[in-house]
Write a structure and sequence with these properties.
Layout: H1 7-12, E1 54-58, H2 77-88, E2 115-119, E3 123-128, E4 133-138, E5 155-161, E6 164-170, E7 190-199, E8 202-210, E9 219-227, H3 240-243
Parallel strand pairs: 4-5
Antiparallel strand pairs: 1-2, 1-9, 2-3, 3-4, 5-6, 6-7, 7-8, 8-9
Length: 248
């Protein structure tokens, strides 16, 4: 089975789950019928930390993340004006229309295109199926860089607080959207992510966004993710000259 990955489906639709045909993922606990036991205990690394490794997808699509907090995100006048203009033109200028990254969190919140977590002692890699992008989170004790070159996914460091991985990211450029509804951010954005894996098949990430130009105060929203067993990521690239026509 193959998937046709166009920008139209990336942004607005769904695609068939990623597959490596007729191959079961090794190390997956299974029920008597052979199906993955997603309620099995949380896997752990040699040092006893939760092992977040695996392919994950949001349990549901989060198109308007900023409106999932009670009363909506606390927009400043600057950000509200930009968001309303983007909604009015139907998201015509969403970065993916030009084959550019959506950024974080939205690149992790589209169930049709999952992501893989690879966990080592000093670094965690997140491989995003959308446009075959990636993140690296250093958990070796280093601080965030000072005055870095702005980046699409920023710069990330992490630490463990009990069974929760806490990731701090900064150094973003201001070109991405925070959700599909056009919520902007500035280059002062500071993103905190708290990863918790309560059992084998489920994970929760709490996103906290702090950006004084965009919001009057920090705000948080929690998103649930499901393990994608017996699947693999697929090659996913955007061809600007072909995909941009869907938005004209």
């Amino acid at each position: 089975m193959t998937r046709h990955l166009s920008l139209l489906f990336t942004v607005f639709g769904t695609t068939v789950a990623a597959q490596w045909l007729n191959y079961s993922t090794p190390g997956i606990p299974r029920n008597a019928d052979g199906k993955p036991n997603l309620s099995a205990p949380t896997p752990r690394t040699a040092d006893g930390r939760p092992d977040l490794s695996g392919i994950w997808a949001a349990a549901e699509r989060h198109h308007q993340l900023a409106m999932e907090v009670p009363g909506g995100a606390p927009f400043t006048e600057w950000s509200r004006t930009i968001r309303e203009a983007r909604l009015k033109n139907g998201g015509r200028d969403i970065p993916t229309s030009r084959c550019l990254p959506s950024g974080i969190p939205p690149d992790m919140l589209r169930p049709p295109q999952p992501f893989r977590v690879i966990q080592t002692a000093g670094m965690i890699a997140i491989l995003l199926e959308e446009f075959s992008n990636w993140r690296q989170i250093f958990i070796d004790g280093r601080p965030l860089p000072v005055d870095p070159e702005p980046a699409w996914f920023g710069y990330s460091v992490g630490k463990w607080e009990g069974g929760t991985l806490v990731i701090e990211s900064a150094g973003f450029n201001d070109k991405t959207w925070l959700d599909g509804a056009g919520t902007p951010h500035s280059d002062a954005l500071r993103l905190t992510e708290r990863f918790t894996r309560p059992n084998f098949g489920h994970m929760e990430i709490e996103y906290t966004l702090n950006d004084p130009k965009t919001f009057t105060r920090p705000w948080s929203v929690a998103v649930k993710f499901n393990l994608q067993a017996d699947t693999e990521l697929l090659d996913s690239h955007c061809e600007n000259e072909k995909d941009v026509v869907h938005f004209r």
